[in-house]
Amino acid sequence: MRRRIAVPVLMLLMGGMPGMLAAMMEHGTLELPSGRLALLREGSGPVIVLLPSLGRGQEDFDDLAPRLAAAGFRVLRPEPRGIGGSAPLPPGATLHDMAADVAAAIEAEGGGPAIVVGHAAGNWVARVLSHDRPDLVRAVALLAAVTGTEVDPEIRRSITASFTLTLSDEERLSHLRRAYFAPGNDASVWLPGWHPEVSMAQRAAAAATKDKAWLRAAERHPLLYVAAAEDAIAAPPSLEDLQATLGPRVTRVVVERAGHALVPEQPAAVAEALVSFARGVP
């Protein structure tokens, strides 16, 4: 199954009141054996967990989360290790440790099961969690996730430059536009929010994860792949390729006028895709 979403969308889900919804956000912490985990909560209803991309924090979902809450969901946002009050990842950590943090957040809300949404590199943790704790996962959604294609070397250079905070804003902005944003979209919203040390720790955790069984683990759950039509890092794969990579239970949505950043570019279209998917999951 494949759907293509045009950009006009979700005022009915928002009710035009994102500021009021944001004011109802709860800030909390979990004290875990691996250290403190900061956690944002809002809304009520079935649980959706949001996981941001490499070296970025939960602020990336500040527009998306209230839309999901307004649609009748309980939105959990565990802050990645090393960001926003969460203790850093310890040396030797793997993706399984990162997934254990998400499991702890879901269990703190009553045990789920939850729909787990991973943006870009956040898809690693979502898929590992579905492997390690299938009892806590109702479904999985991947946003602009790389599923095996090679990335152009020039785009890789721009990804590295995005984390190089010593560069001028003008230079970094040119790299953000090249790697992450569709033409005409405002890339300046991503000038802040980069955490180089966190990204290095997350890459090290991915490299330390030697097992590969989790790569197809999400096929045991319903899975949604939300692609960005103008993604320079992860061009929209065909449904056939996705089914070969992720299993037969995957569906696909393509969001127009969006690049790899996707969520800050088209939060309404992403929310529409997630809400439609979530409401169709048993």
Automatic annotation (TrEMBL):
Pfam families: Abhydrolase_6
Chain ranges passing through the membrane: none
GO molecular function: hydrolase activity
Record keywords, A-Z: Hydrolase
The keyword GTP-binding is annotated on this UniProt entry: no
Residue span, AB hydrolase-1 domain: 48-273
InterPro entries documented for this protein: AB_hydrolase_1, AB_hydrolase_fold, Carboxylesterase_BioH
Gene3D superfamilies to which the protein is assigned, alphabetical: alpha/beta hydrolase
Name this polypeptide is given: Alpha/beta hydrolase
Species of the source: Roseomonas populi
